[in-house]
Amino acid sequence: MGISATKRHRLLVLGAGPAQLGLLRAARDRGLYVVACDRDAQAPGFEYADRRAIVSAEDEPAIGKLAEAEHVEGVIAPGIDWPVAIAARIADRFKLPHPITPETASLCVSKQRQRERLAERGVPQPGWWITTETEGLPVPCVVKPPDRQGQKGLSLVRDSAELGQAVELAIAESRAGCALVEELVEGPEVTVNAFSTDGVFHPLTVTDRLTAEPPAFGVALAHAWPSEHDVTDAVEAARAAAEALGVENGATYTQVRLSADGAQVMELAARLGGGHDAEVCREALGIDLNGIALDAALGEPVTVPEGEPTGGACVRFLVPPEGELTAVSGVEEARAADGVVGAQVYRRPGWVFGPFVRGADRAGFVLARGDSRDDALAKADRAAESIRFETAHAEALVET
């Protein structure tokens, strides 16, 4: 496996934010000519790019022009949902290699269409409704836009009095002007990271998704491997979801809830995970998932090797106090801590943290390895304590 060193291939990466850091670093380390685009001129991933384009990863016409002007040989959208379909369409338009078709990509990035297809194929999932009204909806439930990523417009509703506001928020954030309401499924949540080749689903890491309680419902504070649960059913549910959605090649990142009634698919993304999941895979199994994704994006032969499991690995996300970030210290100390293989702060001074701010849950991360899952978590936590954030009171929490 590997990209030939005789030619410096040109790769377009959609996004240069925290979710793309691992892939961008891997691309630079392999000697690729990296063209990265992001609407944020100070996106941390630009450090690893040869060509920086201040273009939104969701601006398809501009990305098309960029791909043509830069004569790229591949395009990839790691760690970010909506641009997955844009990457597939751009690849199709310019006859570039790509692991998934535009049709499959479009199906995967729409939560509504994904839910419809999973229902057609009998894949276990929560009850769900697409609506603009509140009448007849169950409580408790989760309300979100059907076409947005992460926590944008997401609400956990446990009281019927909160339902109207939650639906209004989801509609306001939705591209389609509607809300996706899902039955609340209780139970631990795991993430199945896998890579498919020619229709064969290769499960890699299954990590515990350690989250906070409301109001930060769904916000992942750590991904830890190996899971402390029996994940056999979770892997099979993720496999069934990938097959139902037509993902025959490429990375998948599937969130699965382990409920009393069995494993239920919460969501599948046809991409690398955006929470340093590929780096956890490297530390957990010795498998270069970023490298495999690069091969697939450039049309190189793809092989998914057998892993050699270590004791444990995790990524711990750094969560600062609310307010405007003024200073950060202790990062080098954290990097030198026992078991730590990576630590970074990717929010610059001036960034505002709070419950209604995009990306407020993640200011950086610590990646650690240990003799066990819990040992890795303990080492990451000790290192994270070395990193100190100073914030000032913000008069208004606005999206940065």
Brief description of this entry?
This protein has 400 residues and is α+β, with helices and mostly antiparallel strands. The protein contains 11 helices and 19 strands.
Give a description of the structure:
It is a single chain. With 400 residues, the protein is α+β, with helices and mostly antiparallel strands. Helix content is 28%, strand content 28%. The protein has 11 helices and 19 strands. The protein has helices at residues 21-29, 60-69, 82-93, 102-109, 111-120, 163-173, 232-244, 277-285, 289-297, 331-335, 373-386; strands spanning 10-14, 33-37, 51-53, 74-76, 128-131, 141-144, 155-157, 179-183, 189-197, 200-211, 220-225, 250-259, 262-269, 312-318, 323-329, 340-345, 352-353, 364-370, 388-392. It has an 8-stranded antiparallel beta sheet, sandwiched between helices. The chain is globular and about 55 Å long. The model is unreliable at 1-5, 214-218, 356-360 and 395-400 (pLDDT under 50).
Mean pLDDT comes to 91
**Oligomer designation:** single chain
Structural class estimated from helices and strands: alpha+beta
Number of strands: 19
Strand order of the largest sheet: 13-12-9-10-11-14-18-16
Straight-line N-to-C gap: 40 Å
Please tally the helical runs, counting DSSP H or I stretches of 4 or more residues.
11
Helix-strand pattern: EHEEHEHHHEEEHEEEEHEEHHEEHEEEHE
Instruction: Catalogue the unreliable spans.
Output: 1-5, 214-218, 356-360, 395-400
The coarse overall form would be globular
Radius of gyration: 20 Å
Question: Tell me about the biggest sheet?
Answer: 8 strands, antiparallel
| Fraction of helical residues | 25-40%
How much of the sequence is in beta strands?
25-35%
